[in-house]
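Q: My labmate handed me this sequence with no annotations at all. I'd like to see what the chain might look like in three dimensions before we decide whether it's worth expressing. Could you predict it?
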Amino acid sequence: MAKTSSSRNIEKISERVKGQIKRASEIHDPFKILIYGRAGKKKTRTMATLPDVLLVDINDRGTRSTKRDLDPNVYILNRVPELDDIYWFLAEGDHEYKSVALDGMTGLQNLILKFVMNDEAIRDASRDPNMASRQIWGKANELMKSYITNFRNLPMHVGFTALERSRDVAEDEEADPQIVVSPAVSPGVANHLEAAVGTIGHITTREVRVKRGKETGTVVRTYLRVGPSERYITKDRDGLFGSVVKDPHLGHMIELIEEGGQ
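A: Here is what I predict for the chain of 262 residues:
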């Protein structure tokens, strides 16, 4: 019996689908992390511990803390269109970088909002260039999300940083208020950013006393909370880092993942 056109199409579809099926262990899945916290809590310095990283400084100017030792390559972003250049440069693959970090997603949102407002003012001279309408916020959010998705999909390790803010995450108006600390971006972007990464950590620092020989002094320790928390937005998709990572080094965390937690 001759095969129909429909049956031949099904065979081709089956071949294509089977050709794309792999074991999870065979899939190249680079490390994607979001770190947020107050200013001066070593977000930039921690991002600089990604292997062979290009640090994109988005009006954050936090790279001073990395000059003495880590000294990563830095691109200081001044205009939104430059982010497209950086993305295509990295996507083409003709570079030595294994990682990229967008340092300052809170600042990027403000930069994008101003970019969209100026663009709308050029299109409509009667529009107030300093007033963001709901439509402008919507366009800015969509542009922000497209950048997050594009960089997340690069075949390399990717990091994002943001300032922190408190927000109410109650599921509906009748539910009791539930205030959590989360990345300081608009609600329309927050869920997208949080879903784009496998690890989310709230970073803080604390001065602790340490004993060195017979003397006691103080040092500043960094703590990255990634384990489940009612107060902080966190995530550890790999389940390897425990509740809190002390003095986090992202290169070492990646090595732990690649070794399967051994």
